[in-house]
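Researcher: Go.
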Amino acid sequence: MRSMVYACALVLLLAGCGSTAPAPVVAVSPPAVAEAGAISTDVAWTQLMIALDQRMLAALELAPQRTANQALETFAADVARRHEAEVVRLRELLQATGAPETNPHEGHDMPGMITKENLDLLAGKSGAAFDTMLADSLRAHFEQCRMLAGSEQSAGADPSVKALAASVETTRQADLDRLSTLVP
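Model: Structure:
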């Protein structure tokens, strides 16, 4: 959205607003409001992270009954605890923006989000087959969250949202590293 505003401003400046003499080229600075609080990027990232985390929580809840790997079960419980706390924080940040608490991603399947079909398949597996599928789902989730968190840090404006994104990026990388030692 900001780039569209800048592009329109630049076109108007270059066109000279209808004058016959060329208009001087002037640097256009970002609006001050972007520095003051949340922008659409912050809201979108927050909403998407809530959706990603909630869908993964449903998969993580299956681990105690389905896994054959005690270390993976412990890891899944740890990730679930952190995701639950993260969802609480994400909702607080979303509420602070004034954005509605509805989930615009309901019913959407996006990269890094375990699909309802895969969740059903996962629920039907146990032992090593469950462990492999859960680990694959976690890897995709961690990688996507890490990438999205990096994007939020470079494109977002709200310092609180960007701080959480930095934490998510670091945590998801640590989770990827730890997962690779549990399930190759």
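Model: The CA atoms of residues 57 and 81 lie 9 Å apart.
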